[in-house]
Design brief:
about 180 residues, alpha+beta, 2,3-Dihydroxybiphenyl 1,2-Dioxygenase, domain 1, 2 domains
Length: about 180
């Protein structure tokens, strides 16, 4: 039973500087503002108010929260917390969400925009290996200015699916 699951609606990201992160997503990926909870509620939201709903650690507050539209995929929700925990060095060897991937039509242009916005590429764009291999299929990882790992993929060619795969991988529509 699918329980009426439609797909991922948004990805929440806690950042050290809300405004800088919003500016980065706009410059790197053409994101647009769609919702600001802090503008709607008038400011910081302490754990005493929202913690029972989202498990915000006692003694902290959500200073700023915005949702950005990122073309044809999940929205991105940006949080700035007054006393965050953890580190900014996420990597795919750590537990939890390590990165997300952005599907693009031109990886060179996307990589250039990523760097111009303040991101740092881990390498140059590279040809993807099996099962994502195919003519023009390329990828590159980069770090946002605060350390978040983001993958950029260009996937114009079909992939090699498992013989009994019931569905193909979902991709955003071209806009």
């Amino acid at each position: 039973m699918t329980q009426n699951i439609r797909g991922i609606e948004h990805i929440g990201i806690t950042v050290p500087d809300h405004d800088a992160a919003v500016a980065f997503f706009k410059a790197a990926f053409g994101a647009v503002d769609v919702i600001s909870q802090t503008a709607a509620t008038g400011g910081p939201m302490p754990a005493e108010e929202v913690g029972p709903m989202n498990d915000l650690r006692p003694g902290t507050s959500m200073l700023k929260v915005s949702i950005l539209r990122l073309r044809n995929g999940p929205n991105v929700e940006i949080f700035e917390i007054d006393r965050p925990g953890g580190t900014t060095d996420a990597n795919i060897a750590n537990y939890g969400i390590s990165h997300f991937s952005v599907n693009v039509g031109d990886i060179q242009a996307a990589a250039s925009a990523f760097e111009a916005a303040g991101g740092t590429l881990v390498s140059a764009p590279y040809d993807l290996g099996a099962p994502e291999d195919g003519p023009g299929n390329k990828g590159v990882f980069g770090r946002a200015p605060w350390g978040l790992l983001i993958e950029i993929q260009q996937l114009p060619a079909p992939m090699t699916y498992l013989p009994d795969a019931p569905e193909a991988r979902w991709f955003p529509e071209e806009s």
